[in-house]
Specification:
- The protein contains ten helices and five strands.
- It is an alpha+beta fold and 295 residues long.
- The protein has two domains: 94 residues, Helix Hairpins (Orthogonal Bundle); 178 residues, no CATH class.
- The chain has a five-stranded antiparallel sheet with strand order 3-2-1-4-5.
- A hairpin with a 2-residue loop joins strand 2 and strand 3.
- Helix 2 runs antiparallel to helix 3 and helix 5 packs antiparallel against helix 10.
- The protein is elongated.
Length: 295
């Protein structure tokens, strides 16, 4: 049976049909109540273990009641249960993926630009704790490519030592796994100036700010989750927010799953940089990898 067929059949037993008023409230409260009954079934299973002989039969019944009310609520709001199911599967596929990052045929946004305007396919970036501290006594980190220092020397810009001075590794991760980082383009002076519109929109101040904001936003989340140590997951709400932030930029076509991998891999490198007071980070944009190479 298809979901829409079930939805139509279920609606024939609705005692309060139609949109609005009492019928909607009954359907919504009914759905909540049946979810509570479903939880009670699992509570009995935990309590009674194998002695709860009717567990599977009761579970089927309670899940069926949840499905009835779900279909009923959707019907009242003119939503197709088939469409809801298809949308949910597509959303979860984009969020969590199933087969890893694609490298064969993977297209880089700047592939058709001169080498001087491309993010390098491979790159080694060195992070070092600087000898001097800031005027306020905070540690500084300098980064360099081929022995040439790039960008400003960074502190944590915080009262405590929280390692944010190494946050440029997040931009490197976005470049390596997504092919996108306006911040890195600016640091290595590889902006796409041959196309004025692309230079202004994709490589300009707004894109750079977005790149920086995402790094800070994810960092604040990860700080409360042990810097993602021991997990390869990122809350779906974080990924949805990022997808909203990059709307209109070229990286909008990267999936939430790809963002999740980029974030997790970036924090692997971040933890190693922090533990070793720096080191060399290697990027490979073709194989979509970022790795910590040691000091």
């Amino acid at each position: 049976m298809k979901f829409d067929e079930y939805q139509e059949e279920a609606s024939r037993t609705d005692q309060y049909p139609g949109e609005g008023g009492r019928g909607e409230s009954i359907s919504l409260f009914g759905l909540i109540g049946e979810i509570g009954s479903l939880l009670t079934t699992f509570k009995k299973r935990l309590r009674d273990k194998e002695a709860y002989r009717s567990f599977h039969a009761d579970l089927r019944e309670e899940m069926g009641d949840v499905l009835w009310y779900l279909a009923n609520v959707a019907k009242k709001y003119h939503l197709s249960l088939d469409d809801i199911a298809r949308f949910n599967l597509e959303k979860t596929r984009l969020l969590w993926g199933s087969s890893g990052l694609v490298t064969k045929g993977y297209h880089l946004y700047d592939a058709d630009y001169p080498d001087s305007e491309q993010l390098p396919w491979s790159l080694e970036v060195k992070f070092e704790e600087a000898d001097e501290c800031s005027d306020a006594g905070f540690k500084k980190v300098r980064i360099s490519v081929g022995g040439i220092e790039i960008g400003n020397r960074l502190t944590d810009n915080a009262y405590g030592d929280d390692g944010y001075r190494y946050h440029d590794c997040f931009h490197l991760a976005y470049a390596a796994l997504l092919g996108w980082s306006p911040v890195l383009r600016k640091l290595i002076k590889h902006k796409r100036k041959s196309n004025l519109a692309v230079d202004e929109v994709q490589d300009g101040a707004r894109a750079i700010f977005t790149d920086e904001f995402i790094s800070l936003y994810v960092y604040n989340y990860a700080r409360d989750h042990n810097y993602l140590d021991g997990t390869d997951q990122v809350d779906a709400e974080i990924l949805r927010t990022i997808k909203s932030l990059v709307r209109g930029f070229e990286v909008d076509n990267r999936s939430a799953y790809e963002w999740r991998v980029a974030i997790v891999e970036g924090f692997k490198v971040f933890r190693q940089l922090l533990a070793n007071n720096g080191g060399v980070v290697e990027l490979n944009l073709k194989s979509r990898m970022i790795t910590y190479q040691g000091g």
